[in-house]
Design goal:
The complex is a heterodimer of chains A (about 550) and B (about 325).
Chain A lengths: L12 H15 L19 E6 L14 H7 L7 E3 L6 E3 L2 E6 L5 E6 L13 H10 L8 H6 L3 E8 L2 E6 L6 H4 L10 H4 L3 H7 L7 E7 L3 E6 L20 E6 L3 H9 L5 E2 L4 H4 L7 E7 L2 E8 L4 H4 L1 H10 L2 H8 L29 H10 L3 E2 L5 E3 L2 E2 L1 E6 L6 H14 L3 E6 L5 H7 L4 E7 L5 H6 L13 H10 L4 H17 L3 E5 L2 E7 L2 E2 L2 E2 L5 E2 L4 E2 L1
Parallel strand pairs in A: 1-10, 1-11, 17-18, 17-19
Antiparallel strand pairs in A: 2-3, 4-5, 5-7, 6-7, 8-9, 9-10, 11-21, 12-21, 13-19, 13-20, 14-15, 15-16, 22-25, 23-24
Helix pairs in contact in A: 11-13, 12-14, 17-18
Chain B lengths: L1 H28 L4 H6 L10 H11 L5 H13 L13 H36 L3 H16 L2 H15 L12 H30 L2 H8 L4 H38 L5 H10 L3 H29 L15
The chains are: A alpha+beta (about 550), B mainly alpha (about 325).
């Protein structure tokens, strides 16, 4: 084997290096290009090219969990209901109406007639039953719909266009769940395929677009479904979609996505971070932003840890975090600091910003009261033990590390030592299950407040080891309440209990940020902060 | 000769086995497993059902002791069955086979560019009598070796795709899409070829046989190419053999920057999701390419330099 010869770097080498770099960097200097001016009248036709950051290797909506896949596969299926992103209200889609019994254990859907799947088969109550019956057999990738249907007893065909779903226990969240892509309805033939087959071939849906081609790690191509006439009540255009074709290109590098948009190689891009915002300025591009509904990014507290069992310590941490500073320094422009444990886009969200105000003095006095006294090195101690906590985190977003380093600094200012412990994303579930953490950086996206019950009820998985309390009653209550005002009251109570007791330390809302060129119109966020492309047009 | 080839093949099998085993142990050492990795996709903590996870782990055999899993996988691998990728359910063999042509296209073009331009640079740099030109040319390879591929890729995309709009920034479409990634991948490779070849050319030009050739009246160019280059190319050839492995590894970065499908992307995704069967498939395949190339290189030596004979068949001439 040969070893590489060591070359004397001549005196010219540094100069050459400098020159070469200089020339190349100059080429990266400023320079704009002209984009077409937009017209205001919607028109049909054309192709939208959308660059997403990853391909999860699966084009079945029911088995998709990543936003980057949902943007495309969502367009191939319709759901029983739709959810208004403004009000959170559930409106008709494939179901023209529904009845729910008093304790939210029975849901009866009356289906629209005349709906067909792209394989020509008709939508009937039996098809819906086939879908819901198949969900438990979806395997690991089906965890989202499986969660929504977890306590299902049976799905019954009442008549050809009426289907009844019965649960073993109250399950008010199910109505919202029927509006998600996860419970998008696929044809009976499609449902009979194996989960793997559906992943690689895609599902046969009744949606406004049909999957034409899927090239793994490369692209997903959808074409308009001719004759589509059963859109959601929320859509402004009736009948078929405007666009003829949607091409989703997988472009993993954020800088390449931004440059491709600027140079007109694509029309829209996903996952725009703070670092790319400057590059996208200049007026040719619009940034679209919406906070993800659900539990905000924050510190999940292991409430069974001796130090964290003390409510005063938890409340001190809650007061010591300067949420605005975290949102403004690390996250994309427009990101809101948390004002509740739920994001403001979640139905039944309550503004608790007063309780989540940054107050270092309050944090210090709470820690004093709890017996943690300031030591010589600035770190508090009690009975000779330092107040040191570990935050477990996982690199699923580029903002995690800088956000946590800032929080680490903020907590140090009140005398709490924080150790950051990075894990693999694949360890996340195991970490929560095993409970080997003090604090864990996490969030959950879901456009229904029942996510509070899955996350914080001591009766369910209880990953955050909460003690049994009146919170359980409020959470169980909202799951059994179909009356909107009554449910809102219980959800508000639950949010207050979680924040007052600091069972969780909410920090910042997760914001989805897309960028589109000015010629793209009508690209709107749905209630889950993903996109609906039926009303989108290019002009 | 035959004994030599058999011995080399046995060594190759040993290398493949070692690659397989080490990658298995490394993946096993990582916390978590593919099933939890799948369930954690999107990190939706509200939805993970421990009982269901346990059932899936049983289905894939992850609840068995490590040694049993290893024996199981190895037994099937020996028979050529690498199983199905856990994250997609597709057979590992066809996943690799689908990604292979794109990567071969990329690495093949890059290797060609690297050899042509690397060797060209070395020849010109050692031939020229202009001192400044020689210094300039010889300062390029160290630069090429030391700049990160990732950075070079982004710079090329920025310049030639976003600004000049000569080439597409992403995708596998046609020759146009191949240029920038192949150049990016060829830069560090070509630089190493140039470094080694320039050094050995300079050494060769000091040898007695070069003096003899000159004394016999051979032209300067002829001496340089016919006599010196032929002898100097042996170390460079060895390096090329090694660089093939580096090219395949480099495709992980280049395919990501240029959004190309291929073995590199498959590898990156498989490692992130701890898809053990898929990683194993890729590793064994990568090792196979590496072993085959180096075997080929060894067999080519005697063609370039008749003084080299295969060691174990001492005395027998190489035909």
């Amino acid at each position: 084997m040969t070893t590489l010869p060591d070359f004397r770097l001549s005196r010219w080498a540094p100069l050459t290096a400098l020159l070469t770099t200089g020339v190349l960097l100059t080429a990266c200097g400023s320079g704009g290009d002209d984009a077409g001016s937009g017209s205001s009248k919607p028109k049909s036709g054309g192709t939208l090219t959308f660059a997403v950051s990853s391909d999860a290797g699966c084009v079945d909506p029911q088995q998709s969990g990543s936003n980057e896949s949902i943007y495309s596969v969502r367009q191939t299926v319709d759901s029983l209901t739709d959810q208004d992103p403004e009000t959170g209200k559930i409106v008709p889609w494939l179901a023209k109406s529904w009845d729910i019994n008093a304790d939210a254990t029975q849901f009866t859907f009356h289906l629209r007639s005349g709906v067909t799947f792209s394989d020509g088969s008709k939508l009937t109550a039996q098809v819906v039953k086939d879908n819901f019956d198949a969900v438990p057999k979806l395997g690991a990738l089906g965890s989202l719909p499986q969660g929504y249907l977890s306590s299902v007893e049976s799905t019954d065909v009442v008549d050809p266009l009426t289907v009844k779903v019965t649960f073993k226990e109250p399950n008010a969240q199910f109505l919202q769940a029927t509006s998600t892509h996860s419970l998008g309805i696929e044809s009976s033939a499609s449902v009979k395929k194996s989960p793997q087959q559906k992943c690689s071939e895609g599902a046969i849906g009744s949606g406004p677009f049909v999957l034409k081609q899927y090239v793994q790690n490369q692209s997903i191509t959808l074409v308009k479904r001719a004759g589509y006439d059963w859109g959601s009540e929320l859509w402004s255009k009736k009948g078929e979609a405007y666009l003829d074709k949607l091409v989703f290109k997988v472009v993993p590098e954020a800088g390449v996505r931004a440059g491709s948009l600027q140079s007109g190689q694509v029309d829209a891009i996903s996952s725009v971070g703070r670092a790319n915002e400057a590059a996208l300025g200049g007026g040719q591009v619009s940034l679209l932003r919406r906070a993800n509904p659900g539990v905000v990014f924050g510190l999940g507290v292991n409430n069974s840890r001796p130090v964290l069992k003390d409510a005063k310590v938890r409340q001190a941490i809650l007061a010591a975090v300067d949420r605005k500073q975290v949102a403004d320094t690390v996250f994309p422009t427009g990101t809101q600091p948390a004002t509740s444990v739920l994001a403001h886009t979640t139905p039944d969200y309550t503004d608790l910003s007063a309780d989540l105000a940054f107050d270092a003095a309050k944090a210090k006095s709470l820690l004093d009261e709890a017996g943690w006294k300031a030591g010589g090195d600035g770190i508090r101690a009690k009975d000779g033990k330092k107040l040191s906590l570990t935050i477990a985190w996982f690199p699923n977003a580029a903002t995690n590390q800088p956000a946590l380093e800032l929080i680490q600094q903020q907590l140090k200012d009140v005398g709490v030592d924080v150790v950051l412990k990075q894990g693999q994303v694949s360890q996340f579930a195991t970490t929560l299950q095993g409970g080997d953490f003090d604090l864990v950086w996490s969030n959950v996206t879901r456009a229904d407040p029942d996510i509070l019950r899955s996350s914080f009820s001591s009766k369910l998985a209880n990953f955050y080891r909460l003690p049994a309390s009146s919170l359980d009653t409020a959470l169980a209550g909202q799951a059994a309440t179909t009356d909107a005002a009554g449910r809102q009251q219980l959800v508000t109570e639950a949010q207050k209990l979680i924040v007052d007791n600091a069972y969780n330390i909410p920090v910042v809302e997760l914001q989805t940020q897309l960028a589109v060129t000015k010629k793209v119109h009508g690209l709107a966020f749905d209630s889950g902060s993903r996109v609906q492309l039926h009303d989108t047009w290019i002009g | 000769m035959r004994r030599y080839v058999i011995k080399r093949l046995a060594q190759a099998v040993g290398v493949l086995w070692a690659a397989y085993t080490v990658s298995f142990l490394v993946l096993d050492f990582l916390p978590g497993d593919p099933v939890t990795a799948m369930a954690s996709a999107g990190m939706d903590s509200g939805q993970v059902d421990p009982a269901q996870l346990a059932a899936l782990r049983h289905e894939y055999g992850f609840d068995k002791p490590v040694l049993a899993q290893y024996a199981d996988y190895l037994g099937r691998a020996v028979r050529g069955d690498f199983g199905d990728a856990i994250s997609t359910g597709r057979p590992v063999a066809s996943t690799v086979a689908d990604a292979l042509p794109q990567t071969l296209q990329l690495t093949g073009t890059a290797l060609l560019l690297a050899v042509v331009f690397g060797a060209g640079l070395a020849v010109v740099a050692t031939y020229t009598s202009q001192r400044w030109l020689r210094q300039f040319l010889l300062s390029l390879p160290p630069l090429g070796v030391s700049v990160p591929t990732f950075w070079v890729g982004l710079l090329l995309v920025e310049t030639f795709s976003f600004r000049l709009e000569w080439f597409p920034a992403f995708g596998n479409d046609g020759f146009q899409g191949l240029v920038l990634p192949a150049v990016t991948l060829a830069i560090p490779t070509g630089a190493q070829v140039a470094q080694v070849l320039a050094k050995s050319l300079l050494t060769a030009l000091d040898q007695a046989y070069v003096e003899t050739a000159r004394a016999k009246g051979a032209g300067r160019w002829r001496v340089h190419l016919r006599h010196a280059l032929r002898n100097a190319s042996l170390p460079a050839l060895t390096v090329v053999g090694l660089l093939v492995g580096q090219l395949v590894a480099g495709s992980v970065v280049v395919e990501t920057v240029f959004s190309r499908d291929g073995l590199g992307r498959v590898t990156a995704a498989a490692v992130t999701s701890q898809d053990i069967p898929l990683v194993q498939g890729v590793v064994v395949f990568g090792a196979l390419i590496f072993v085959a190339t180096n075997l080929l290189v060894d067999l080519v030596y005697p063609l370039l330099d008749p003084r080299i004979v295969v060691a174990s068949d001492r005395g027998a001439s190489f035909a």
